[in-house]
């Protein structure tokens, strides 16, 4: 079995159950190789933002956990797929645990590239959109495959930001002011949908 002992041990030191710590540590999208690739992409987007404005970074950052969640449950690359499916933490709980781990890792790895941005607010205004996109992927995945859900959400996100920015009279309108209230409301609505569709996650975790 692939080793991620350092992360597993760190989680256990913070009081995380040993079984859950193993499932999190073995999640493909919290492995160093994945995080390094993500950091590189975000750094490039942040550098581009220095001359093009914050939009490149703000568009890319929320999509990181979307892709991460999609590969977190990929059977061929998941070293503990069978263990997770057969465990008491399977289904809805397993999906939430690993999706939360991916989201937190994505946020943490975005801090350093975000330092390239000129204003601190651009480091935080993408957090609610990232949560919305992640939750939306999980909701859609109760109807179709996770990879399909990730593609749909990514396309909707890019199209939505593009349309809003073209129509708005002020720059970065997709992320400031009323947009943040809309994202907050969307989070609450999507959480309610997740709870309503929770029985469907047995199929997702079992893939």
What does this structure look like?
The chain is mostly helical. It has helices at residues 5-13, 18-25, 32-52, 55-60, 63-72, 81-86, 92-114, 127-140, 146-167, 178-196, 201-205. The chain has one domain (5-205). The longest helix is centred in the middle third of the chain and has 23 residues, at 92-114. It is globular and about 50 Å long. Mean pLDDT is 77; it is low at 75-89.
Structural class: mainly alpha
Q: Measure the end-to-end span.
A: 19 Å
How many domains? The number is 1
Give the percentage of residues in beta strands. under 5%
Low-confidence stretches at least 5 residues in length (pLDDT < 50)? Answer: 75-89
- Shape call: globular
Number of helices: 11
Main beta-sheet strand count, sense and barrel state: none
User: Residue-averaged pLDDT, rounded?
Assistant: 77
The value of Rg in angstroms is 17 Å
How would you concisely characterize the structure shown here?
By secondary structure, the chain is an all-alpha fold. The chain has helices at 5-13, 18-25, 32-52, 55-60, 63-72, 81-86, 92-114, 127-140, 146-167, 178-196, 201-205. The longest helix is centred in the middle third of the chain and has 23 residues, at 92-114.
